[in-house]
TrEMBL record:
Belongs to the RIPOR family. This is RIPR3 protein. It comes from the Eukaryota. It holds the Pfam family PL48. Residues 1-294 form the FAM65 N-terminal domain. The gene is Ripor3.
């Protein structure tokens, strides 16, 4: 419902401001800032919530988790069907082995269902704090246009505190949500450059996601194959950061920048490995091939 500020008394506004203050998410949820929270690490605290970005990540995350749930539910249905047939006519040892597999899949499904419910709970709390912050901000703007009195100044101060508290709560929830984003396993698949890649050429690839870094070196062999000193790296997804990829060519002691690109991780929350081909140069003469498994 929309709320009109016309005729809204100072006493009513102060009551609403206090009610907003009492509805702090940390009074209803135990959101401790453990070390695992990327956004809550010392020196990396983000006091600028991004609701639209969080919504996109939440929707992608929930879709990916449901894909995993559907896949394991299909596996459970298949095993259950075999279990019934085996019970009628099969070896006892095979029957118990199948029963063990079924129990394992059932436990994993329960974990996934809990994971999904926790993500939904966090996002619901996030949306509530976002609406409260928007309401307090609108009220603050309305009071700033009204004649200055002692009561209005007190209301403005209370509303300012509410905005700050809601912002802080949103940041805590973003940190809690990051814990549930899983891991990205990034595999190096090599450079594609056709005539641009020659035997003996050496390249360095630098991948960054927030504070996480991956630096690897590779060489073009005489048979056009490529050797890299590392093949895989695990990254922890981040709500606010994109992948930044930088490629340089190594020539003796000199380095020549080939290109720098950014890559959004929104499409990586899926059960299937994602093949990525990134244009490193503007004309696409050199591309980087990666594979991401969530």
């Amino acid at each position: 419902r929309s709320c009109s500020f016309t005729g809204f008394s100072t006493v009513q506004s102060r009551k609403l401001a206090k009610s907003l203050s009492r509805s702090s998410v940390r009074s209803r949820m135990s959101l401790k800032p453990p070390k695992a929270y990327n956004s809550l690490q010392k020196g990396a605290l983000i006091w600028d919530p991004k609701p639209l970005q969080v919504k996109k990540i939440f929707e992608a995350l929930k879709k990916g988790l449901n894909e995993y749930l559907e896949a394991h539910q299909a596996e459970l249905d298949y095993l259950s069907g075999r279990h019934k047939d085996t019970k009628r006519n099969s070896r006892l040892a095979f029957y118990y082995d199948l029963d063990k597999q079924i129990r394992s899949v059932e436990r994993y499904i329960r974990k996934l269902e809990f994971h999904i419910s926790k993500v939904e709970e966090l996002y619901e709390a996030y949306c509530i704090q976002c609406r409260l912050r928007d309401g307090a901000t609108n009220m603050k703007q309305a009071f700033s246009l009204s004649p200055a009195t002692k009561a209005s100044r007190e209301s403005l101060l209370e509303l300012y505190k509410n905005v700050q508290e809601c912002t802080e709560d949103m940041c805590f929830i973003e940190g809690a949500l990051e814990v549930h984003l899983g891991e990205f396993h990034v595999k190096m698949k090599g450079l594609v450059g056709f005539a641009r890649l020659c035997p003996g050429d050496q390249y360095e690839v630098f991948v960054r996601l927030g504070r996480q870094k991956w630096r690897l070196k590779g060489k073009i062999e005489t048979d056009d194959s490529q050797t890299w000193d590392e093949e895989e790296k695990i990254f922890i997804p981040n709500l606010h950061e994109k992948f930044e990829i930088k490629v340089t060519e190594l020539r003796g002691l000199a380095t020549i920048l080939v290109g720098v690109v950014t890559c959004d991780s929104i499409n990586f929350f899926t059960t299937k490995p994602q093949a990525i081909i990134v244009d490193i140069t503007e004309l696409g003469t050199i591309k980087l091939r990666l594979e991401v498994l969530w």
